């Protein structure tokens, strides 16, 4: 039976062929919690009298959303995660390490894995051909204690990507275009599988950006095949042994096939307050911007920082536009320092922060004021997302964000990229 | 089980940031306190004025966004009888069943703010006492009926000490 990537990974785990719609109980390889969802998961384990980790090496606790802690309640929550890790042998990724999804792909997720995380963007690891999905605290708690979860085998939507990006257009623009076209619920309960000639050519950073935002179309996961580019990425993390090639079978059945021609794409933004409210940058241009945020699990990788630095090199932020740059992980931070990017950002007038979620979730480090407009490289722009329901968030690529910081208005990056 | 209550009407795409705003991140370990802010950014009167048993009636894709299970938990804790919407985001839907919050899929376009509803869970029907209209909601998938019937996933697990999802 020809299988999609999602079907193939689940079938391997349950030891038989599976069909979309079927309910399976499956083993899991990696389970993740973060500091917003983790404390509740640990309370549930106590409630269940199951305070243990079935597979400590595959259980990872991230302190990333409020890192370093801005208040005592969160400091205490952090300590509950640290205590669980030392009690069970689970892996702790403390305040210096970075955003969970970046850390998961650097150090934990591998092709063919099933990964569950108590964070919706757990789908990011789908770019490594892992069936990676977000669940609630209790589901992940049970997964940690038992090593298993239940799943409905999803139908798959195939996204065939053709052509190449024009200068100034990036993977972020492509995924915004897709979500704008199919809607914020366009793939609910389904897996997205990105394929086609462009998929084979994309860097891992670009693939992570696509998979990361699968959930913004409602999808359970966003998958790409594991190929030579995947192997090189894992080798660079010292994990070549975790690589194996994995792809969908020819002739697999898809719920729907969507084709996207990258050549036809323009730089886009998602305007407030939904991710599917996409517009061309040209249509949104001129909107005054109070803050620009470059970072997150969507676009806080070294490749993203290089693009932003290229735009900002030798320039300064607009006097009335704050600029915050937050590398996604410690290794991204170190690499950016080595390449002189952090210096470029600081010279351009940016606040460069330690790795983590930073301003993304509205806890600290860049909460917006009433009526303010932010251009952010993050993945969602819901009302209240950055800590203020009276503020307005536009989502964009790192290039568009950097260009907007210079001009102080939403700006087409092609003015700065030749 | 039959529940009666008043309708609080919300629009499309009510996100988990509306339900459990990020600025109350520090209250995530204090659910009763967090529940005082439930849906505050979508309707500031809701948390203070709703009565136990009232219904949240919304547009499509309710609960989109983050995986925070706190969202259905504080809806439950605030006392809402159920959430009615034409469609739900996936993680929110699963979390709701896990925590024992009924989530009912039906066309809500004819239901208005302040209407009185009577929801008959066994019959799968929603009677709008205000307009006289009766609607039916889509049955839950059998596995979710089982988990909800056990009182949520924790109670399910306590009962069987394992998954027992055969239906
Ligand atoms: S960077 Fe933002 S979207 Fe990503 S995990 Fe952190 S809070 Fe969530």
Structure commentary:
The complex is a heterodimer of chains A (418) and B (167). With 418 residues, chain A is an alpha/beta fold. Chain A has helices spanning 5-14, 38-47, 72-88, 100-107, 137-146, 171-182, 197-201, 204-212, 228-236, 281-284, 296-299, 302-312, 330-338, 341-347, 398-407, and strands spanning 23-27, 30-34, 59-62, 91-93, 114-117, 131-134, 148-152, 156-162, 191-195, 221-223, 256-261, 268-270, 278-280, 291-295, 322-326, 351-352, 373-376, 392-395. Chain A has two domains: 5-261, Aconitase, domain 3, CATH 3.30.499.10; 268-413, Aconitase, domain 3. In chain A, the strands form five sheets. A five-stranded parallel beta sheet of chain A has the order 4-3-2-5-6, sandwiched between helices. Chain B has seven helices and seven strands. In chain B, a hairpin with a 5-residue loop joins strand 6 (125-128) and strand 7 (134-136). In chain B, helix 4 crosses helix 5. Classes of the chains: A alpha/beta (418), B alpha/beta (167). At the A-B interface, helix 2, helix 3, helix 5 and strand 7 of A face helix 5 and helix 7 of B. Bound molecules: iron/sulfur cluster (SF4). The site of iron/sulfur cluster has 13 residues of chain A, from helix 4 and helix 11. Iron/sulfur cluster is lined by residues 65, 99-101, 119, 121, 296-297, 357, 360-361, 378-379 of chain A.
């Amino acid at each position: 039976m020809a299988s999609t990537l999602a079907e193939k990974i689940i079938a391997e785990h349950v030891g038989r062929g599976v069909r979309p719609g079927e309910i399976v109980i499956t083993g899991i390889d990696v389970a993740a919690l973060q500091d917003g969802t983790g404390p509740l998961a640990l309370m549930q384990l106590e409630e269940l009298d199951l305070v243990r980790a079935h597979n400590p090496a595959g259980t990872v606790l991230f302190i990333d959303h409020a890192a370093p802690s801005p208040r005592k309640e969160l400091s205490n929550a952090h300590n509950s995660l640290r205590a669980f890790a030392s009690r069970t042998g689970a892996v702790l990724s403390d305040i210096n390490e970075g955003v969970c999804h970046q850390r998961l792909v650097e150090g934990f997720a591998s092709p063919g894995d099933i990964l569950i995380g108590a964070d919706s963007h757990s789908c990011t690891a789908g770019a490594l051909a892992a069936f990676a999905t977000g669940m609630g605290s209790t589901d992940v708690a049970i997964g940690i204690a038992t090593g298993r979860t239940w799943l409905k085998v999803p139908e798959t939507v195939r996204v065939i990507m053709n052509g190449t990006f024009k200068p100034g257009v990036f993977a972020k623009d492509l995924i915004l275009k897709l979500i704008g076209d199919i809607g914020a619920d366009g793939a609910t309960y389904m897996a997205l599988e990105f394929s086609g000639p462009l998929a084979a050519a994309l860097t891992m950073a670009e693939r992570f950006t696509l998979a990361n935002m699968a959930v913004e179309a409602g999808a359970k996961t966003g998958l790409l095949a594991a190929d030579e580019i995947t192997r090189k990425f894992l080798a660079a993390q010292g994990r070549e042994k975790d690589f194996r090639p994995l792809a969908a079978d020819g002739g697999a059945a898809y719920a729907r096939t969507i084709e996207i021609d990258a050549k036809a794409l323009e730089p886009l933004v998602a305007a407030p307050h939904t991710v599917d409210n996409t517009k061309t940058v040209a249509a949104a241009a001129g909107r005054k911007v109070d803050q620009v945020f470059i970072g997150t699990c969507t676009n806080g990788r070294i490749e993203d920082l290089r693009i932003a630095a290229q735009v900002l090199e030798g320039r300064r932020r607009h006097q009335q536009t704050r600029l915050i740059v937050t590398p996604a992980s410690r290794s991204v931070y170190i690499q950016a320092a080595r390449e002189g990017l952090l210096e470029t950002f600081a010279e351009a007038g940016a606040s460069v922060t330690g790795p983590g979620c930073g301003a993304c979730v509205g806890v600290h480090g860049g909460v917006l004021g009433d009526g303010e407009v932010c251009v952010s490289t993050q993945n969602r722009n819901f009302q209240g997302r950055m800590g203020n329901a009276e503020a307005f968030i536009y989502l964009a690529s790192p290039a568009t964000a950097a260009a907007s910081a210079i001009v102080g208005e939403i700006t087409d990056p092609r003015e700065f990229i030749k | 089980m039959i529940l009666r209550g008043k309708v609080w009407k919300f629009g499309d795409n009510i996100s988990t940031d509306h339900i459990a705003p990020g600025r109350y991140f520090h209250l995530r370990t204090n659910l009763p306190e967090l529940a005082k802010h439930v849906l505050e950014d979508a309707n500031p009167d809701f948390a203070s004025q709703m009565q136990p048993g009232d219904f949240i009636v919304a547009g499509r894709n309710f609960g989109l966004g983050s995986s925070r299970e706190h969202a259905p938990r504080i809806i439950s804790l605030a006392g809402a009888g159920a959430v009615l919407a034409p469609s739900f985001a996936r993680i929110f839907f699963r979390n709701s069943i896990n925590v024992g919050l009924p989530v009912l899929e039906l066309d809500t376009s004819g239901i208005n703010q302040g209407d009185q509803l009577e929801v008959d869970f066994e019959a799968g029907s929603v009677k709008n006492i205000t307009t006289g209209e009766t609607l039916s909601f889509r049955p839950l998938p059998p596995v979710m009926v089982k988990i909800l019937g056990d009182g949520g996933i924790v109670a399910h697990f306590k009962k069987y000490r394992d998954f027992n999802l055969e239906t």
